[in-house]
Amino acid sequence: MPGFRIRLIAISFAMCVLVACEQRTSTSAGGSNAANPTPTAMPGTSTPATSTGADEWVNNGATACDKYLTPDLVGSIFKNSNGQSHRSDSRSCTFEAAHQPATDFSTINIYLRNGGADLYDADPTTRNGTPIQGVGDKAVRTQEDGIQAVKGERICSVYVKPPFGNKIKGEVLAQRLGDVCTKLFALP
Known about the structure:
The termini are far apart. The N terminus is likely disordered. Strand 3 and strand 4 form a beta hairpin. The chain is an alpha+beta fold and 188 residues long. The radius of gyration is 16 Å and the shape is globular. It is built from six helices and nine strands.
C-alpha cells in the first residue's frame, strides 16, 4: 500500500505542476487568465486549467474523437467498433464502446494541451514510458497502453482504457494511436 500512496502523491504533484505551467504559459503569452477563461480539465483530474485562446490548436481535442477515431481504427483495437464519441471539454474527447450485456466498457480518450518539451519531460507518464519513433518530436508508449507525444509546443495524449483485453496492444497499438497524434499535430 505505501507504493500506491507514493504514486498517488507523485501524480498529484505532476498535475499541480501541469496546471501551474499551463497558467504561466497563458499569462506569459500576453493574456490574462481572468480576462480570457477557458475552463478545461487536465487529464485524470477535474481541476480546471485556463487558456488565453492564443493557441486554438488545443480546441481540436473536443472533436478529435469524431474525426479521427474511425470505425476501422476502433474496430482494430476493440472487439466491436460500435459506440459513441463525446466532447469531454474544450481540449479533450472520449469514445465509449457500446454498453450492452457482456460488453467491456472500453474507452479511448484524447487530450491536447500546450506545454512543449520541458512540460512533456517532467510528466511521470512520459518518464516511465517506452520511447517510440515517428510521432512528433518525441513520443512514448505509456504503461497503460496509450501514447503521449510532443511536437513543438503541442502535447497530444491518447489512452485506451482498460489496457487489457484489446485486439492489439503494445507497440502496434502505440503506432496506431500515434497516427492520430500525427494528424492532430498537422492541424493549425
